[in-house]
Design goal:
The protein is of the alpha/beta class and 1103 residues long. The protein has 28 helices and 38 strands. α5 packs across α11 and α20 packs antiparallel against α25. The N terminus is likely disordered.
């Protein structure tokens, strides 16, 4: 750590004038300092001497004025002359480098403020009776100076002295020293990045140059007013008024003094900007070399510098002439007026040129504001996004994908970690986190973060560790610790992003030696690693109450929350690969980084996002195009880019499916601007927004806007009742009615904490104009020409297969005529909508982003055309007609070995099972009572699950407690370490079994280990199993008892806590095999034929 210290003096003196002892090296260093600084010291002394002489020396033939001398502001030499009262005379300067000095022959020595010119007012000589006695002298005058032996001030060229002093002075004087050898001197100063981060802005200089009257002060004042009042920025304006009354009061309007004025102002601006102040300079500064020197000074210091040329024709300036100066020049009253008879050198390559005669004051100020905004000057953080696009929340680009070269090693690590189940909805949230949509979040929320979200709809962050709180949201919540300083920044975060788990998973994590878990999908694929897990109670009621603010047990997302486990897991995530859904829509799924790159490639200087939950009709297109035009006209943007942003995550069942919306949007883009319902693909980017919809109204819409900003949007189009829905019939206050007031969402959004610079564009109502077949804002003077086409009417027309109406005869009742106006929607897009609504129950749609994955089936199996994960999926064996009836119960050899058919591979939660009633007895997914595919929700299975072929648990076979068999083949839990493929046939050594009592039925579970497992050679019994894999039996029993509790069902029970041995288990297997023979008519017992099973396979009753 560096410490601050004064720089060494050139000579150190002790008390009494004695020199302090020092080493030879120290003396050498001091001598070097003396040599380095002496020229500057000499120059200062010369300037002090000159000032003293001037203050003591009278004018030629005139007593010294008791009032001294004062020079005033401005940039034109002639202005000062014209401002002098009548009776003044001009005294020529002592050299060509000095401007005329005006001597006022007034009767007093009062100092008068002059707007634009140097005036030295001196009392008249006692012998003079009138102003006419004033005479003009020159530097070459032979008039004898009554200087009492001192230097004649008229013979001194201050400009040359100043230039010589500057040339002799080193430009960089050490002001502090580092505490340790080898450290940079910058160690003694607060780093600019830290300063800017704390101030929440960067320093910069806007140097406005141009002729008098061009508007420098006016525009700078307008910009200053806006930046300070509306945005709370630190801004200061430097101009002649506050410079020439202070720091520059000793300067005239000579060329040298003008150069010195610009140099001093440039140095002040450099210091101000380095301090983080946005500095507005308004000086004529006519000479290019002087301005270039200021630019170089800024560039050398790494400070943003903008030269702004107010380019106004002189004729226009003469028309303006607010002070009448140009008129006085025309009359000959003023001489040496810059831009008229004194030179002005316009900038060659200014950063900004303002033709203020063609712009309103606010337009000019807005151009400057937009440039500062685009370059990130108005934010303290380094600019991370392309110009014109905002930084992500928290000023950190979040991309949590593991680098490709590390993926293999991380995957191997993940295989050793406890597994945490993530549902497809959780997978959506994981994508949101990993791709940066919820920046600065880096994982599922810890308890402290969740509390901030629930109570404030935002979180405090410290991205630059100003208060040592950078890791606040990635550290375990500590309720006993109170920080001395709160994080300085607040960012929007209104929706809880949490991961729930059951006690089963909690126990697995807490008993693990690892400080990480593997996040595993419903289909058994490891997706990510979560580090440093923090497990805390899932306070569902509190979350629902604060998040939704309504009481509606039938609300679809509220139902999802209550289905979750009793615990939440927080921690930072690492994505092991890009999340892909393989549903044909992945090309429209882009990360936040990919989106900002695409916006940059399109040359966007701002981005406005339009979220879609429905197909896009011409009214939407009108609003989107109009928004872009308004941003150009009113916002001053050159190339605003539209982000068409369809919802992609989990949605409620009656929403329009994702694939329907995306494909319809594709046709909107394909139509371009040829159709009123089309969009220009050159200025439009379509990208799916990955987050689930939670239907939380005003709370949720804040996250909609915030997440779009994280991907580069500065504007968000928001309509009425954003993120709202109608209450269910269980809603307390609003059953079958809007849960939220339609106006509340927009109001809350624009006033929400942490929303920052995000701007809202209002979604106004549009109607169809039958006079030109265009959707637009209705004209109040001819409302009869407009018809309204609501969403419900559009859906009805689509279900009825409505065809285009006549372009010249549009009926007032579209439903009765069963037609849709041709300008309502692009034709091919309408066809897609009609196809959906007329086949809404076909099941071929993609409601939301759910992964389409390969089942990981054995190579000797085949599938039908249906997707895995749907109720229609079927898996059959190529060698056997029936998994159940044709595969032998036992392999040809091996003691206590059976054939195990895998239904559910290790880690998979899709409840796959052999279908006893279907032809061929295929393996397919079980369904819930509502027909949806069934998944285990208790956790990730640590075993392969399946059955023993040619067995049957006969309901007539009772146990000692009177429970009958469950009417299925005998179930098996294979406890090896390798994942077995679905539909595979594996020789498996029997170890024992547990008898589960499931809703009054006997459901035996055989425990076995694959002969191919690495541990098979050491495990021949349950005792061996506990020795090799301690705790396995306990985990199996826990699973069997509780796996349905996460679905709201009661616990199961076991007939006995002690599993049976191998011998007893083999007897059970033989018994169920005999019962199967009876079922097929091959045994000695009789089985009724009303079972509904398909038994026509060759191994049973078949040919």
């Amino acid at each position: 750590m560096a410490r601050y210290a004064y720089a060494p003096l050139s000579v150190e003196e002790g008390r009494g004038g004695s020199r302090l002892p020092h080493s030879a090296s120290a003396e050498a260093e001091r001598a070097s300092k003396v040599n380095e600084r002496m020229p500057m010291f000499v120059g200062i002394c010369v300037l002090v001497a000159i000032t003293f002489v001037l203050s003591r020396s009278p004018q030629a033939g005139v007593p010294a004025a008791p009032g001294g001398a004062v020079v005033g502001g401005g940039g034109n030499a002639a202005v000062g002359v014209a401002s002098v009262p009548e009776g003044t005379a001009t005294v020529s300067s002592p050299s060509h480098a000095s401007a005329p000095v005006v001597v006022a022959t007034t009767a007093t020595a009062d100092v008068k403020k002059v707007d634009n010119g140097p005036v030295i007012q001196i009392s008249p000589p006692a012998t003079s009776s009138s102003a006419s006695t004033a005479t003009t002298t020159s530097a070459s005058s032979t008039t004898t100076c009554d200087c009492d032996g001192k230097v004649d001030p008229k013979t001194i060229d201050l400009g040359s002295l100043r230039a010589a002093a500057l040339d002799a002075t080193p430009p960089h004087i050490i002001e502090c020293s580092a505490a340790s050898d080898g450290e940079s001197q910058s160690a003694c100063h607060l780093p600019p990045a830290t300063r800017y981060a704390a101030l929440k802005q960067k320093g910069a200089t806007l140097w406005m140059t141009g002729c008098s009257g061009a508007g420098k002060t006016t525009i700078a004042t307008a910009l200053e007013d806006r930046l300070i009042k509306a945005y709370g920025k630190h801004v200061y304006r430097l101009d002649g008024d506050n410079l020439r009354t202070g720091i520059n009061r000793d300067l005239t309007f000579s060329e040298a003094d003008r150069a010195e004025s610009v140099r001093r102002t440039g140095e002040i601006a450099t210091l101000f900007a380095d301090a983080g102040v946005i500095t507005l300079v308004g000086l004529i500064s006519p000479y290019r070399a002087d301005r270039d020197a200021v630019r170089k000074r800024h560039e050398d210091q790494g400070i943003p510098y903008y030269e702004i040329f107010l380019d106004v024709p002189v004729d226009e300036l003469k028309k303006r002439d607010p002070k009448g100066q140009y008129a006085r020049v025309e009359s000959g009253e003023l001489k040496h007026f810059t831009c008229i008879d004194d030179p002005y050198e316009p900038p060659l390559t200014p950063e900004i040129t303002l033709k203020t005669h063609e712009l309103e004051i606010e337009q000019s100020a807005d151009i400057l504001f937009r440039r500062l905004e685009m370059d990130g000057i108005l934010e303290g953080a380094p600019k991370l996004s392309p110009p014109g696009l905002p930084n992500p929340d928290g000023d950190e680009i979040i991309d949590l994908h593991v680098p490709e070269h590390d993926r293999a090693a991380r995957m191997e690590e993940a295989k050793t970690l406890p597994k945490v189940l993530i549902t497809d909805l959780d997978l959506n949230w994981l994508q949101v986190i990993g791709e940066g949509w919820a920046a600065p979040l880096k994982g599922f929320m810890r308890e402290g973060t969740l509390l901030e979200v629930l109570h404030f709809n935002s979180i405090l962050v410290d991205p630059f560790n100003l208060t040592e709180n950078y890791a606040m949201h990635s550290s375990t919540t500590n309720f006993e610790e109170f920080k001395s300083h709160r994080p300085p920044d607040r960012v929007s975060m209104s929706v809880p992003i949490t991961l729930s788990c059951t006690g089963y998973t909690k126990d697995a994590i807490e008993s693990s030696p690892h400080n990480a878990v593997a996040l595993t999908s419903q289909m058994g694929n490891i997706i990510a690693i979560l580090r440093n897990p923090e497990i805390y109670p899932n306070r569902k009621e509190e979350i629902v109450t604060r998040m939704f603010g309504v009481i509606d047990p039938g609300h679809p997302y509220i139902e999802q929350i209550y289905k979750g486990g009793d615990y939440l897991i927080g921690g930072e995530v690492e994505l092991l690969d890009r999340i892909r859904y393989n549903d044909g829509l992945d090309k429209w799924r882009k990360t936040t980084k990919e989106l900002t790159d695409e916006f940059r490639d399109k040359g966007a200087d701002t981005v406005y996002a339009f979220q879609t939950r429905n197909p896009t009709h011409a009214g939407h297109a009108y609003l989107m195009r109009s928004a872009g035009e308004n941003l150009k006209k009113e916002g001053g943007y050159k190339n605003p880019v539209l982000w068409l942003s369809p919802l992609g995550g989990w949605t409620k069942e009656d929403d329009v499916p994702l694939d329907v919306r995306v494909k319809q949007h594709e046709e909107v883009l394909n139509s371009g601007l040829e159709h009123p319902g089309g969009l220009d693909p050159a200025t439009t980017v379509m990208a799916i927004w990955p987050a689930p919809m939670v239907y939380a109204g005003p709370t949720e819409v804040q996250f909609h806007a915030k997440s779009r900003r994280s991907a580069g949007a500065s504007y968000f189009v928001v309509g009425r009742d954003p993120a709202g829905m109608k209450g269910s019939n269980l809603a307390v206050a609003h059953p079958d009615d809007d849960l939220y007031d339609g106006d509340h969402g927009r109001y809350v959004l624009q006033n929400s904490p942490g929303i920052g610079s995000m701007n809202m564009l209002s979604f106004v109502k549009v109607m169809y104009d039958i006079t030109d077949n265009v959707m637009k804002v209705p004209d109040e003077t001819r409302l009869d020409d407009f018809i309204s086409i609501s969403g419900s009417k559009m859906r009805l027309l689509a279900r009825n297969g409505a065809v285009p109406c006549s372009a010249t005869d549009i009926p007032t009742d579209l439903v009765e005529a069963n037609c849709v106006p041709k300008g309502f929607m692009v034709p091919k897009g309408w066809d897609i909508v009609v196809d959906y609504y007329r086949n809404i129950d076909s099941g071929r749609w993609i409601p939301w982003s759910r992964p389409v994955v390969d089942p990981g089936a054995d190579s000797r199996t085949s599938t039908n055309d249906s997707k895995f994960g749907t109720g229609d999926f079927q898996l059959k064996h190529k060698d056997y007609e029936s998994f159940w009836h044709d595969i032998p119960m036992k392999p040809s050899s091996g003691e206590n070995v059976v054939n195990f058919v895998t239904e559910i591979p290790l880690l998979m939660t899709a409840k796959m099972e052999v279908q006893k009633a279907l032809s061929g007895n295929p393996i397919s997914q079980d369904s819930n009572s509502d027909g949806s595919p069934r998944y285990y929700t208790y956790g990730t299975p640590f075993f392969n699950y399946g059955f023993i072929p040619q067995t049957w648990e006969d309901p007539e076979l009772k146990d000692s407690l009177g429970n009958g068999g469950d009417n299925d083949p005998l179930d098996v839990m294979e406890i090896g370490s390798k994942r077995l493929e679905m539909g595979s046939i594996t020789p498996c050594r029997v170890l024992g079994h547990l008898e589960l009592i499931d809703e009054g039925e006997m459901d035996n579970k055989v425990i076995c280990i694959s002969l191919a497992d690495p541990d098979a050679g050491a495990i021949h019994s349950l005792g061996d199993l506990e020795r090799v894999k301690p705790g396995t039996i306990k985990r199996l029993k826990d699973w069997l008892k509780k796996y349905k509790t996460s679905d709201g069902k009661p616990e199961n029970s076991l007939a006995s806590e002690n599993p049976t041995d191998v011998k007893e288990t083999m007897e059970l297997i033989d018994e169920t095999h005999g019962r199967w023979k009876n079922l097929c008519g091959k045994g000695t017992g009789y089985v009724s034929g009303d079972h509904g099973f398909w038994l026509e396979a060759a191994g049973c009753k078949g040919r």
